[in-house]
Amino acid sequence: MIVLALDTSGVDCSACVYDSASDKVLGDVCETIGKGHAERLMAVIDGALQQAQLPLQQIERIAVTIGPGSFTGIRVGVAAARGFALSLGVDAVGVTTLETIALHHLLENPGHPVAVGLDAKRGEAYLQTFAADGSPLREAVLLSLDDAKAALSGFDGAVIGSAAPLFAGQENGAGPDHFPIAAVARAGARKPAGQPKPAPLYLRGPDARPQTGFALARRDVA
Questions:
Q1: Same domain, 13 and 70
Q2: Whether 76 and 103 share a structural domain
Q3: For the chain, how big is the Rg over CA atoms in Å?
Q4: Nearest one of 11, 28, 192 to 97, comparing CA atoms
């Protein structure tokens, strides 16, 4: 299966063309841009396809990160994935950033469970634990650091991700979470057929809120 993987969930804007039959990355492009994913994503995809020397029409599945992560970035990636899937007549699957990081770790460190914690700022962390085979042991949750530490009490496995230093009592997290776009492709290729359309995974509401107190009073016109 030829998979086109997309990631716009964090500071990176990435695309990858992956052949699951040979477990080979045919082309990948990653730009660390912070913001502006909507403006760069199509050029990044074009670059990955050019490296792979494949036309878009040969893509058989789209994989995209659905969060947790940047509210706007996730929307950009999911919208692009669904649009490509519709135009090509192929499946699009969503992959969380947590499972992507877990799978990448387990491929290099097999045999033990892993907990992935992402620094969500404001004294909170996104947390999910996975078995040694990569299957989730619990749903992804947003917890206070104290609650996350309590949830990990007695956990017999590696604790990774940008929140890991916070769980260990340090003042700062490890910075933005990066992972190879190939990990998104591999995770997407593992998904069974017939998955629901990818949708953003928002464990926290958007920071922007409608202004209050500025609405104009309604005026009835005779």
A1: yes
A2: no
A3: 19
A4: 11
Same domain? For 29 and 131 the reply is no
**Which residues are 28's β-sheet partners?**
16
The CA distances from residue 168 to 32, 101, 102, 114, 220, in Å, are 28, 19, 19, 15, 61
Do 103 and 71 share a structural domain?
Answer: no
Backbone angles phi, psi at 43, to 5 degrees: -65, -35
Kindly report each contact of residues 172-176 with a partner whose C-beta sits within 8 Å and lies 24 or more positions away, as own/partner.
Answer: 173/119, 174/119, 176/10, 176/11
Q: Are residues 126 and 162 in the same domain?
A: yes
Same domain, 20 and 124: no
Question: pLDDT tens digit string along 119-144?
Answer: 999 999 999 999 999 999 999 999 99
Whether residue 126 is found in the same domain as residue 92: no
- 81 is in which domain, residue-wise? 2-97+178-190
Model confidence pTM above 0.85: yes
pLDDT over threshold 80, residue 214: no
22/17 Cα distance (integer angstroms): 12
- Number of compact structural domains in the chain: 2
For 113, residues 6+ apart whose C-beta sits below 8 A from its C-beta are 129, 130, 131, 132, 137, 155, 156, 157, 158
- Work out the widest C-alpha separation in the chain, in whole angstroms: 76
